[in-house]
Amino acid sequence: MRLATVDDTQALGRRLAAVLQPGDLVVLSGPLGAGKTALTQGIGQGLGVTARVTSPTFVIARVHQGRVPLVHVDAYRLRDAGRVEIDDLDLDIEIDDSVVVVEWGEGIVEQLSDSHVEVRLERHDDDSRTATLEWVGPRWADGAPNLDA
Ligand SMILES: Nc1ncnc2c1ncn2[C@@H]1O[C@H](COP(=O)(O)OP(=O)(O)O)[C@@H](O)[C@H]1O
Ligand SMILES: [Mg+2]
Q1: What is the per-residue pLDDT for 149?
Q2: Residue having the nearest C-alpha atom to atom 13 of ligand 1
Q3: pTM as predicted
Q4: 72: helix, strand or coil
């Protein structure tokens, strides 16, 4: 889907949050500036996170309390290490109780869960973005949730 402005990117995050439950894993891919953090901000809004969601680059992972806790991971510096294990994230919460969103997670975090949503973000010359969603695993066996609204 086409995302003309950063507000559209955040609105997609809010709609995505509406179908997420504790234990869900969201993997965000796309180059620097594609809108991964902006999408995570929308997810946070949808989960009732009141704290500001910023890039966790220097801490790898950050936990935001909301109706459901949001674990926001920036896996950029973990990419060379290969697959990411829970312990690498140094969290003091249970990921089964949280929604986990991982920037730069493609190819290295999918095994954290039997299911995940992948959101691939692309940036175009006119500065708009495109989001492509892929729903993977038994969690979505009933089909891709409808995010229209
Ligand atoms: N759909 C969009 N249209 C225009 N600008 C956007 C859009 N989505 C995000 N941005 C802007 O792009 C910049 C980078 O976004 P960010 O979420 O930090 O990217 P990433 O985390 O992928 O590096 C921010 O200034 C943000 O406001
Ligand atoms: Mg980012």
Answers
A1: 64
A2: 33
A3: 0.94
A4: strand
